[in-house]
From TrEMBL:
<protein>
    <submittedName>
        <fullName>Uncharacterized protein</fullName>
    </submittedName>
</protein>
Length: 127
């Protein structure tokens, strides 16, 4: 990868907060995003749990009469950062909205050795 391509990659990672970036750097290490294989059942289950934790942080059930329900993970990247940081894009729905409206969310979750921390959760902004 050329220096120009590397600079463009890092610009996109910063601009998009790690979401919607197609990993194009070969290698593995701190600061390098890698795609998550969603076909791996163990990893897919972990991302489902992380997405549900993010929804609980975004919309705590005890504060609202309705809450959002996880539907499915759309895509995810990860990087090594004292454990793993996952950038997850997923669908969620509001069961009280009778129209079956599904929204897209993004969550950044740090899976450290001794703890799991939802660092960011938000509806996906469309450009």
């Amino acid at each position: 990868m050329t220096q120009k391509e590397m600079n463009e990659y890092h610009r996109l990672v910063k601009e998009r907060d790690g979401f919607d970036v197609t990993p194009s750097i070969k290698g593995y290490g701190k600061g390098i995003l890698m795609p998550v294989n969603l076909d791996e059942k163990k990893v897919a289950h972990k991302l489902k749990i992380f997405s549900e934790l993010a929804l609980m942080k975004y919309c705590p059930r005890e504060r609202l009469p309705t809450y959002l329900q996880f539907v499915k993970v759309v895509k995810a990247n990860y990087e090594v950062e004292y454990g793993y940081v996952y950038y997850i894009t997923f669908y969620a729905k509001d069961p009280s909205a009778g129209d079956g409206c599904i929204s897209t969310f993004q969550a950044k979750v740090w899976d450290a050795i001794s703890k799991i921390e939802v660092q960011l959760v938000r509806p996906k902004a469309y450009a």
